[in-house]
TrEMBL record, chains A, B:
Residues 13-148 form the Flavin reductase like domain. Pfam families: Flavin_Reduct (PF01613). Keywords: Flavoprotein. It comes from the Bacteria. This is Flavin oxidoreductase. Its cofactor is FMN. Belongs to the flavoredoxin family. It comes from Anaeromicropila herbilytica. GO terms for molecular function: FMN binding; oxidoreductase activity, acting on the CH-NH group of donors, NAD or NADP as acceptor. InterPro entries: Flavin_Rdtase-like_dom, Flavoredoxin, Split_barrel_FMN-bd. PANTHER family: FLAVOREDOXIN (PTHR43567:SF1), FLAVOREDOXIN-RELATED-RELATED (PTHR43567).
Amino acid sequence: MAKISLGVKPAIFPSPVLLIGTYNDDGSVDVMTVAWAGMAASDLTEVYILENHRTTENIRKRKAFTLAIATVETMAQSDYFGIVSGAKDPQKFEKSGFHAVKSEYVDAPVIEEYPLTIECELEEETSAPEEARILGKIKNVLVDEKMLGDNGKMDVSKLHAIVWDNFQAGYYAVGEKVGQSFVEGKKISSLNKLADWSEDADKKEDTSSACSSACGAATLEEEKKEAPSACGSACGAAN
Amino acid sequence: MAKISLGVKPAIFPSPVLLIGTYNDDGSVDVMTVAWAGMAASDLTEVYILENHRTTENIRKRKAFTLAIATVETMAQSDYFGIVSGAKDPQKFEKSGFHAVKSEYVDAPVIEEYPLTIECELEEETSAPEEARILGKIKNVLVDEKMLGDNGKMDVSKLHAIVWDNFQAGYYAVGEKVGQSFVEGKKISSLNKLADWSEDADKKEDTSSACSSACGAATLEEEKKEAPSACGSACGAAN
Ligand SMILES: Cc1cc2nc3c(=O)[nH]c(=O)nc-3n(C[C@H](O)[C@H](O)[C@H](O)COP(=O)(O)O)c2cc1C
Ligand SMILES: Cc1cc2nc3c(=O)[nH]c(=O)nc-3n(C[C@H](O)[C@H](O)[C@H](O)COP(=O)(O)O)c2cc1C
């Protein structure tokens, strides 16, 4: 396969599409779209935002914000929140037609129309080369009841989340579940007839999701505490 | 809609699924899966990785790594790279059946089977509460020729990227393009008959993608330099 060099580009795909909810000085609501964002620890969110956004000012003042996940159903509004600035149009939020209530956990609004909202307190602000790097301490996660699966856990396939691409600035829908982590990889090792970890795991099928949540998220200590022993080496933690 | 509190959870959705490629001491290849990762600036990637991974050691020694994007076609191997540690199995990479060549830009391997690879030099390591925070300076982006669209730009819908969820540790395929940023939001403002920026933009349809790339990625200075004047306020930068 011929490979082509594209030079220096922001090329991670995809970026999530999140909405930051904050309060303005007068208690009215502002919402802005952010794509450069992610998890920084099990209870820490991270967003990179330009100095001059109204949102940045609001976060500094109230020390709190919410993060909602953009969906196919809310795409037009979610994009609109990324075009208009609350600094220019004081009625930005009102004009979206969406509704907000105060978070019970932090001094920031929960936008009712989004099915999943993360309620954060400002943990730390540092400066990144281009933007402010904001870390939020998660105080609670609020979801629409109908987003839960039969097992009582959040079922993200019900969200209809959209993601963003840094090359052509398009929105894409996240589709169906295609696999389970810490399960798919076993095919490789059995194909290649190797590794005792996979034989162990075969005997204990149910451990896979406990393994992966212990792994993807955890500190070494938590990993050891939370992970069933069958996945002791699954995260490479015991190695 | 009744909302349910889930407590404190890593709830951003989705996380990307990336593969970090590094060289071991003996010049053999290691690859590991990472989901807590994203863009930190136009030319900076960021990954959060546990201290005890072989990959973390390799990055410190060679000051370089590559990041490839996991796809539906490479799901089994991409998961496998996240289960087995190179510290435990020196033949980890070989057993995947994948192939590597040396990057022309950095001291790290490019895995041939992945359609998009970001070649990075170690820019900075800082410590996060749970993991090491690694910033990579992008030196080049390498893509399979057939991933380019008719306009010569990377067409991410050809990638078949997969993403990961922090709640149930599943993999999900990213589907079709459903919209264009800085275009969808106009529906709201025209519905509500407002804002001169949207009337301006209507007259100059072609500016939308230039607007959005200037906005999502850029510093204020770059934004002003790169953005056509019709989208001066699109990023909230001019406000
Ligand atoms: C898809 C999309 C992604 C965006 N991502 C970011 C981002 O990561 N960081 C940022 O500072 N601005 C980003 N923006 C731009 C802001 O959302 C926009 O400038 C907004 O008008 C700021 O609103 P405010 O001034 O009311 O806070 C994005 C916009 C869109 C449409
Ligand atoms: C879907 C998935 C996501 C993962 N995300 C991370 C991550 O964000 N950070 C991390 O330190 N480990 C993560 N891991 C675990 C490592 O990939 C795994 O421990 C690997 O075996 C380390 O390999 P190494 O020791 O050869 O470097 C993830 C694994 C999977 C399957």
